Amino acid sequence: MFSLLLRYSIVSVLMTILFLTGCSQDALNQDDMEPGEFIKDEAGENLNSETGEDLALPPVEFEDGTLAESIYQRRSHRNYKERTLDLSEIGYLLWAAGGLSVDGITGPTRVYPSAGGLYPLDFYLVAGEVAGLSAGVYRYNHTEHNLIPVISGDFRDRLAEAALGQGFIADAPASIVLVAYYERTKSRYGERGERYVHLDAGYASQNIYLVATEMGLGTVAVGAFDDTALADVIQTSGDPLMAMPIGEINQ
Ligand SMILES: Cc1cc2nc3c(=O)[nH]c(=O)nc-3n(C[C@H](O)[C@H](O)[C@H](O)COP(=O)(O)O)c2cc1C
User: How much distance in Å is there from the Cα of 167 to the middle of ligand 1?
Assistant: First the structure.
């Protein structure tokens, strides 16, 4: 146990040093290059156009059912069918948002990158019509992959109201709300930590977009809302950053 902890501490320290020195390292490598020098491929040919003309890239091609297809197909959807979601869909979405994965070196990590590995986000579920789940607000617990009940009742109308009356939120069977705890990241990085929290949220929310696309479900990132009203609806002490209604797409 002690050696595991020691290994984890050493890896964490090394990762932090690499993270903090990363920018100056890039600058060093660039400085090493002579002006006008081209990057060569294995055959010694220039990859850059010597004539200074624009260089055409190979066309993008991908198979159906790949990640690239989900990236291509992703859209914001605001019109949902009256269809109940099931727990496996909710579980998959929440896992993709902020669940656990394993990197094999440091042990358990999360599915999205986070500055300093600090993970300053929580994921709340505002459930209305989810089979096997009473209407209510829940918090996703990534370590156990379960839902912690916060308050029971159907809060979808109040969520839509807090989001400046964006009615499609009330129509969706459920919404995921990303909540930030800025101090977790700012305590290490100061004011710059605020930027990192927003970047973290971007990665997590794109994961939700992409797995929703993969499952044939629709979502949209909603950033327009009254902060205090939304925090009140889901009863959080953190700062809500984004609400993402989820439902089957109504074309
Ligand atoms: C930070 C952020 C906040 C957004 N807020 C809202 C919102 O409050 N309401 C809404 O309907 N769409 C919102 N959107 C979705 C954008 O309108 C949408 O992503 C954009 O029009 C591009 O369309 P696409 O997502 O289909 O590619 C938001 C998107 C982002 C990234």
Answer: 15
